[in-house]
Design goal:
With 242 residues, the protein is α/β, with parallel strands linked by helices. 42% of the residues lie in helices and 12% in strands. The protein has nine helices and six strands, in the order αααααβββααβαβαβ. It has helices spanning 9-33, 40-54, 65-77, 81-87, 89-99, 166-174, 176-181, 195-199, 221-231; strands spanning 103-106, 129-133, 155-159, 184-188, 209-213, 236-240. Strands 1-2-3-4-5-6 form a six-stranded mixed β-sheet, with helices on one face. Strand 4 (184-188), helix 8 and strand 5 form a beta-alpha-beta unit. The radius of gyration is 20 Å and the shape is globular.
Amino acid sequence: MRRAPSPNASDQWTRAAEGEGQARRCRKRLGRFLAPSGRHYQIMLFGKISQQLCGLKKLPWSYDSKYFWGWLNAVFNKVDYERIRDVGPNRAASEWLLRCGAMVRYHGQERWQQDYNNLPTGPLDKYKIREIDATNSCIMNIGFDHMEGLQHVEKIKLCKCYYIEDDCLERLGQLENLQKSLLELEIISCGNVTDRGIIALHHLRKLKYLLLCDLPGIRDKENLVQVFKAALPSLELKLDLK
């Protein structure tokens, strides 16, 4: 006779499916990142990841696999300040963003860069990030120091970013270079964002367009409208919130 499923079986299946979905995305990013390219920095960085993996007493597979992939995503976001000094902020930020599954577009180029192994080479000051599309990426707050030296970013899209929280948006609003350059910002389906994080964006004084869509953490739309109307009177604020 088959045993009846436990009351929590459906929840366990749901969590397992979510963890596997995140795992597939991580494995895809890891596969792109580690594809043969002969780049010394990739080998060094993967060596650091391997050392940390070997240091774990127990790998939390199966039921707790989402915690493992969360840990791996945190490794992808870790800031290497020596790398920033060696290759410059735009190259280092490009590597971070693509490592986490995002895309970048440089000034003077139409093509999006999304393959870590095909990032262009040349003079460090030649390629300046103009746009960032972080859709379905694993960027998180601990990696935002990569943006500190970016002086030419005009547009950022944060869509379905699981790790984007209020602290991330507060950090974004505090970056002096972004305060001078960012013109457009889209935040879509980021479930951990609340009014506090959105309000912090009023420090982006050059912002001309802000799209807020499918953000269940937003509670007071009218207050947001008033805040941005006072701080950024020329801002086009588009709200698509329930």
